[in-house]
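Hi,

Apologies if this is the wrong queue. I'm a grad student, and the batch job for Transport permease protein from Mycobacterium numidiamassiliense produced an output file that my downstream script rejects. I'm not sure whether the problem is my script or the file. Here is the sequence I used:
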Amino acid sequence: MSALGALTERALMSAARDGALAMELLSPVAYLAGFTVALHGLVDTGHMTYAQYLVPAVVVQSVVFVALITADRSARDHLSGLGVRLATLPISAAVPVSARLAATLVRAVLVLSVAMVAGYAFGFRMTGGLGYALAFVLMALLLCLAVGLGADALGSSTSSIQGASQLLVVPQLLLFMLSTGIAPEKTFPEWLRPYVRNQPVSLVSETLRGMACGHVALGNLMASLAWCVGLVLVFGAITLRAQRRT
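Support response: The file is valid. Your script probably expects a header line. Output copied below for reference.
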């Protein structure tokens, strides 16, 4: 087995042993049940059912949650000295971070599958066809990769496992709660709407809604891709630089 394969398997087994994987798999069901019970009938989503409106945002929240746990994995490897030991082996400096991100994407696929099954039970439907369904999955995974790279960079430079996790809680909540994920833009105060409309969670959620229905606004798609690709490039460079320094 290659170094990349061995380290990816190690990361997946670690997530399964400490319960993180189980928590990730349950999170989309909890999000769907909680928001549907609390907000169903209270939020005007026009011609779209609330389940059809909510599930893409739950997908975004779930893959972001998976990606943020990469910070915990990265911090554990950094503080245990694993990175230093791996640096003595004849492998690329990119292998450890690539393995953590590969494990993150595998977990994201599992969580995405759970979210879609749970969403179907709540009334969500993919009506855009196979091509749009594939684009839906790829967009969600691209967002996961972008956030995962940033989380890995933070974990690789932290001095505390708890500190890395706590630093990411507030941004995650602000991005999700102040977005069009759970309610349309018109429900927010007018002065807040530009932020709500243009932040990445809102843009990707709207793009996924369009892909689910088979009608995607080009401007929204390009803005979502710009956010995701931009974050991948910036955080990727930071992460690889941190690995080489280690």
